[in-house]
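To the wet lab folks,

You asked to see what we're planning to order before we commit. Fair enough. Below is the target structure as tokens, and below that is the sequence we designed to fit it. If anything looks off to you, flag it before the synthesis order goes out.
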């Protein structure tokens, strides 16, 4: 089976495997259609997603014999969701700068320099215009300690900010080989089916870009183009992913900076209000503060909007189920106490391992608030250990293990046992004419015909497609 037939049939797991084996995704048939064209014609969003994730911008711009791109074909067939996805993916890729150019290298810095400069500028203004202001009375010992505590917390937050931005978030080592120099006995060409993830039917864990079978809670970040262990989210404000190895730094950064905003804001208000030279009338006091305490008022306004902006964004995004960026302080605590990531919360309805046998939400990695928090605070991360063996086995309901001597009757895909006793998958892509005798035009019809069970689920690639199947989409 080749990519063209798999895309036409909508076998997303088969596409993942073929891409994993370096199958050529841009091959055009006699009608000029690539696998992405056929996936768009059939309106299969998951197949399109897999091909776009593993492809390049040029794949979205290829035209077939009638001069239509995949997005235009999807729109012509009234597959609105697929057309929107392909159009949006093309716009995003067109806006992305070349990583080798000067502008591309600058864009990789993201918003981190802006955030760092903002915090540093506010900290400087606070020290100069609030703590050491000459037109304000001297600080008492106790109040001065509180005022400088805010400076200490903000400075410590900047250190954690740097660590979070520069630290490895948990990148998984890539296993990329040169397809021209690969030998027949390369591990890349023979995927051992005794891998626990593949035995469970989780073919979505195959990463066609990194050429690995990634852990269950890992995800490929489209921005960093790497698989990240315990992927939480990609934060543009720190210009890095938040994952297993830097989530502790990220959370502590949020705690320190929000605490610093509360303390410094309170100190600034107290200093301005208790000015002994300020007039008693409110209107006159406003005029006096606006002329004599410009720096303190400016700091207070920015601090106010930043603090409440973070709070509002947290509530809004939490209510939508999508928590991103540095507005996730409140929800980060919730996630830590439940041992669940932002990515998992946003995909609760799609990830099968977050559903119990009854179909309701169940987090198998939740060991209770006390243990979750202690493991995170002591180790900096939580191990991917399921809460109980019984619940782990319950996830296997509906998952079938493929026998060692199973094979596909048409010879496209079969398994064999090598000399070491390991079972491997071989792919035969000799049949490239997936659509014999069919001439494509913009007016042709590709309806959903009745399918046999063998067509609906490709043997060996559809393991566990019952209640336990998970779907992967671009984040």
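Sequence we intend to order:
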């Amino acid at each position: 089976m080749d990519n063209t037939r798999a895309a036409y049939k909508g076998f997303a797991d088969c596409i993942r495997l073929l891409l994993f084996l370096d199958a050529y995704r841009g091959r055009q048939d006699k009608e000029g259609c690539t696998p992405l064209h056929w996936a768009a014609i059939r309106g299969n969003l998951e197949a399109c997603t897999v091909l776009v994730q593993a492809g390049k911008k040029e794949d979205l711009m290829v035209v077939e014999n009638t001069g239509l791109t995949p997005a235009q074909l999807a729109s012509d067939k009234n597959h609105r969701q697929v057309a929107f996805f392909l159009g949006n993916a093309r716009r995003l890729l067109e806006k992305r700068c070349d990583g080798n150019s000067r502008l591309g290298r600058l864009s990789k810095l993201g918003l981190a320099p802006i955030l760092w400069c903002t915090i540093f500028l506010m900290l400087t203004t606070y020290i100069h215009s609030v703590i050491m202001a000459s037109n304000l009375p001297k600080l008492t010992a106790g109040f001065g300690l509180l005022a400088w505590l805010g400076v200490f917390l903000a400075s410590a937050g900047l250190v954690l900010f740097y660590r979070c931005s520069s630290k490895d978030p948990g990148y998984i080592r890539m296993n990329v080989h040169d397809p021209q120099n690969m030998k027949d006995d390369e591990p890349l060409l023979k995927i051992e089916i005794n891998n626990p993830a593949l035995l469970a039917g989780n073919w979505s864990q195959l990463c066609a870009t990194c050429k690995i079978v990634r852990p269950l809670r890992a995800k490929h970040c489209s921005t960093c183009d790497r698989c990240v262990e315990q992927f939480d989210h990609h934060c543009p404000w720190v210009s890095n992913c938040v994952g297993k190895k830097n989530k502790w730094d990220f959370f502590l950064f949020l705690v320190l900076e929000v605490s610093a905003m509360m303390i410094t804001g309170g100190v600034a208000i107290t200093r301005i209000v208790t000015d002994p030279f300020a007039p008693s009338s409110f209107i006159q006091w406003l005029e006096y503060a606006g002329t004599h305490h410009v720096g303190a008022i400016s700091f207070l306004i920015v601090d106010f909007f930043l603090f409440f902006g973070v709070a509002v964004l947290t509530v809004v995004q939490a209510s939508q189920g999508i928590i991103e960026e540095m507005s996730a302080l409140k929800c980060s605590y919730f996630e830590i106490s439940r041992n669940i990531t932002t990515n998992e919360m946003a995909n609760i309805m799609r990830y099968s391992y977050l559903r119990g046998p009854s179909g309701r939400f169940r987090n198998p990695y939740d060991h209770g608030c006390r243990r979750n928090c202690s493991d995170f605070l002591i180790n900096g991360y939580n191990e991917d250990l399921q809460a109980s063996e019984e619940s782990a086995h319950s996830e296997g309901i509906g998952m079938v293990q493929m026998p060692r001597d199973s094979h596909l009757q048409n010879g496209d895909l079969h398994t064999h046992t090598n000399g070491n006793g390991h079972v491997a998958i071989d792919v035969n892509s000799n049949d490239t004419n997936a659509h014999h005798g069919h001439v494509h035009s913009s007016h042709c019809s590709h309806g959903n015909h009745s399918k046999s069970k063998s067509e609906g689920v490709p043997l060996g690639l559809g393991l566990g497609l019952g209640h336990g199947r998970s779907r992967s989409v671009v984040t």
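Structural context that might help your review: The beta strands are 191-192, 206-207, 212-213, 219-221, 226-228, 233-235, 240-242, 413-417, 423-427. Residues 1-96+397-475 form a domain with the Serine Threonine Protein Phosphatase 5, Tetratricopeptide repeat fold (CATH 1.25.40.20).

Thanks,
Computational group
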